[in-house]
Amino acid sequence: MSQPPREGKGMSEDTRSELYAELAAVGPYGTHPGHALITMVEPHPGHEYAYNRWYEDDHYYAGAMAMPWMYAGRRWVATRDLQLLRYPEKSAIAQPVTAGCYLSTYWITAGRYDDHMRWTVAINKRLNRDARVYHDRTHVLTAFQDHEATVYRDGAAGPRDIHALDHPYAGLVLQVVEVDAPEQRAPLLEWLRSRHLPKRLAGSPAAMVTVFRPTPLPGDRMTYVKQVEGVDTRLTLLWFLQADPRECWETHFAGLDAAVAESGLGRVELTAPFIPTVPGTDTYVDRLR
What we know:
This protein is α+β, with helices and mostly antiparallel strands. The chain has a single domain, classed as Alpha-Beta Plaits, CATH 3.30.70.100. It is 29% helix and 27% strand. The protein has 7 helices and 8 strands. The protein has an 8-stranded antiparallel barrel with strand order 1-3-2-8-5-7-6-4, surrounded by 4 helices.
């Protein structure tokens, strides 16, 4: 059987190739995770299996990893028992606090946010036009973010933040901390980086914490993704765990909101544990409800 013609063959193909060569020759191309996409999504009831297969088989690649400057990614899942560990109960992020059973995290090369964003808006419009977007889902928290800090438990030993989405960590805790006014975020960040996180990491199963601040989505974003809230007042923390969060929740993570509140510098709006998905399978899908 003959192969179908390649899309665009004979139509300015050489020009496109030359353009790729020009783009690769200029601009930042380091390994630092200068930016991230962090997206927590709730498939609608009855659509759990179909959503999981669509995301893993198509969207994870066509809507994320195939894009320029997005160089690492990982999916995480919160089964029902993990959802019930979340706090605070009245969260400004998730209503109810158990909403958002899937989390995807991606690293983007520092200095390439604008380039990546132009591509991602365009490709998602194309995917939507080609009926390759699964609409029976709710974006609980979806935001591109700028990297602010990484704090390590073991200093120079162990994987760096550039490896965090490839290293086989056993769990992840998503934490969102908020302040009342934009000028309060810098003192909160400094306290987290220099005092709170080093203290909480010492002797814990968390190897590192990455800290990001959200950025606004462009005006031409897809309409099913709401504009980011708390752009000037929130920080997003990702705790990378070497143990299943259920094994260490009470001893290491149950009181993170109290510690932040006692500092007087901010408040925790969400603390949510996840475990990694098993790519190519429907493992855990039957344990979401």
